[in-house]
């Protein structure tokens, strides 16, 4: 009997040792990645879901998320090596690459603009903006780019002042204090008595537009192609989780966006489901809209975007499998 108990104890001991070795191996297999997102709008939702749903960990990544309130600043951090990946405004990524930045996009969040022009109550027509000031986060940001595209299409280029505020929260504060009459943004968080109204929805312009890009440094991509693919996989799985797990997704949105009420989280979720592409591929026409605005029409897509990971995963049926349960 004693010999039998001793054997059981030894077996349990070896089992514990085996589990410890296995868990240590898994821990070592996790690649640490610092990943930034540039807004608390719907274009960041897929990144939040990848983190909170466990998609990063499932793909062997220890993902550390940080918020940097502007796409151009995310680009600077990528160039400086402070980040392994980041989601920033596509126009900021393109502009940086045109100026020699050694970065590349590997996935895209959306190929349609979801921003709106919010204005003060007294503004009833686009013509009412003449001589007044609109706020943007930073010059060169997606809000700046879309603002200028809207003004150009309305024949108001040069007739409306555009002021750099710093970030989305600063834009909201400027609106609240009536320092600006409006802003092109995904959402405008102000408190009463401010009463913003939507004057124009950018999607109604009928133009394709690449919103945000998941970008990495070219050298990092060259040295760590498997890690970059795992980042893309995790992001796509995060978007699928959002589409399939609404109640959990709402809680994650409330956590990261710091919404004061359920209605705001619901509106954010609706935009995310509507606009975030299930297959995060950068479409040529959506990028060309940005290039045309910059006066760089015709520059090849692969100058800025490497769709090879997304295209290969698509051929392998990866995205179809993600949504098979919900079909």
Order of helices and strands: HEHHEHEHEEEHEHEEEHHHHHHH
User: Which class of the largest domain in CATH terms?
Assistant: Alpha Beta
| Shape assignment | globular
Q: Which structural class matches the secondary elements?
A: alpha/beta
Strand segment tally: 10
Q: Helicity range of the residues? A: 40-55%
The main β sheet shows up as: 5 strands, mixed
The share of residues in extended strands comes to 15-25%
Multimer state: single chain
Number of domains: 2
CATH 2nd-level architecture of the largest domain: 3-Layer(aba) Sandwich
CATH superfamily of the largest domain: Periplasmic binding protein-like II
List the helices and strands and how they pair.
Elements: H1 2-29, E1 31-37, H2 45-52, H3 55-58, E2 61-67, H4 71-80, E3 85-89, H5 90-98, E4 103-108, E5 116-119, E6 133-136, H6 142-153, E7 161-164, H7 168-176, E8 182-185, E9 197-201, E10 212-217, H8 218-223, H9 225-244, H10 246-257, H11 262-275, H12 284-294, H13 308-315, H14 318-322
Parallel strand pairs: 1-2, 1-3, 6-7, 6-8
Antiparallel strand pairs: 3-10, 4-10, 5-8, 5-9
Helix pairs in contact: 2-9, 2-10, 10-11
